[in-house]
Write the structure tokens for this entry.
Amino acid sequence: MKDLNNYFNEGLSGKRVLITGGSTGIGREITLTLASFGAKCLICGRHQEQLDETVAAAEASSSSGTVTAVAADLARGEEIERLFQQVDQQLGGLDILVNNAALGYGSVTEGNYQDISYIVQTNLTAYMVCAQQAARRMEASGFGHIVNIGSMSADVREEGSSTYVGTKAGIQGFSEALRKEINPKNIKVSLIEPGAVDTDMQPGNADNKQQQISKQEMIPAEDIAIAVAFCLAQHDRCDIVRMQIRPHLQLI
């Protein structure tokens, strides 16, 4: 059996990766993990300070890969276009897209049209358009892998979160249909659906979240990052189509 570090390095080293929402939470851990296995990562986020911190963290870790960053608000179509111009300029093509940028939101009875529209554009429309742009580049090169970070909220459908649930259920259906469309073009599609993860979306302070992790009611973001790396490192013959990851004692 192969050494696991070698296994991940062989599958990820030198791969050109775009990670949306790559400066905080799950996206940040995915960035640092893939860079540690030699990937060339371009990340985007809305806040330059957080982007700079993630780039610095990757550099400080002496990872074998690289991390560069572009500030972008993916709720705006022109920002997505600009982002993929940077993909072409900085990476010279794209092997992997990790669609991760998302915002939390509560019930559809809250806020107004602009509020809900912004969430849908960020959490769902941007996933679709980024996948579209990525697939075009991957089809031209003959291979690729798109990973959509969804949520188990798509199945749990918790009360008081109907807007967020709607976007995550949309990602679930989109991923299944997209895979049927682009697998014949040698482009993989994986859907990763986390349960309760220690991110800014979860209520409570750092101490409360650590207590939940200790009680196995929450998991750290690095657990999701390892799952993403596992999906991406698979042989060409093998697809991880859908993976749900939840804390051991999260029973719903």
Observations:
- The longest helix spans residues 113-141.
- The domain at 4-245 is CATH 3.40.50.720 (Rossmann fold).
